[in-house]
Amino acid sequence: MRQEYEKYTAEDFEVWKILFERQFPTLHGKATQAYLDGIEKLGFNAERIPNFDEVNKRLSQYTGWQIEVVPGLIPAKEFFELLENRSFPSSTWLRKMEELDYLEEPDMFHDVFGHIPLLSNQALCDFLAQLSVISLRYIDNETAVKLIARLYWYTVEFGLIQEKEGLRIYGAGILSSRGETEYSLFSEVPEHLPFSVEAILNTPFFIDRYQTQYFVIDSFEQLFNSIPEIERLVVRAVEEERVLV
User: Fold this and answer.
1) Which end of the chain is less crowded, N or C, counting CB atoms within 10 A of the terminal residue's CB?
2) Structural fold of domain 5-239
3) Which one-letter DSSP state was computed for residue 244?
4) Domain boundaries, the chain
């Protein structure tokens, strides 16, 4: 599949512009600096839907990763095979004007605006690649798949990072959500917990509401360095034939 850039409509460009202009300015002082740097490195802006061919040329200079076009949500095995090969799956369709605030399935704005800028960060990319190796090794084990999903959810999708300037967002699910950006950092409802592989593996998640806890890393290197512990605990759960809630 490929991005058929010439088929984007005036409404598509307007939707991208609205979403970008209402979300990106709010992220200064809230998003990790690595994300803001990634936006600049890849040349993302409100006026133009990103062209994957151009983005891939830039990504290749920083980390060697690429965007791979997919029709939408894909099976776990296919997803992790792409990550293992340093390709990040992304849809190319954008929500309609009447769907600006809610979608049942992630669209290109979530995939590209939320995820792709941080693919210019080497440590995060290495974490994704190695997590995928573990995932594919145990892809036929239901327990392992659920545990890896929890790791991915509480880091890549809904992770926070403590930087010297303060608490910041790096999870794409938060970065692409106006409401959860404010909630994750400033609401008194959710807990901010120190990053713990074991704690995450024992914490179920829900896709239809804001999180009740966020796990906070100290650096992207910490994520990458947690890979041996992730594998050890996943293997232990598989060997114990643990049944997850």
Assistant:
1) C
2) Phenylalanine Hydroxylase (1.10.800)
3) P
4) 5-239
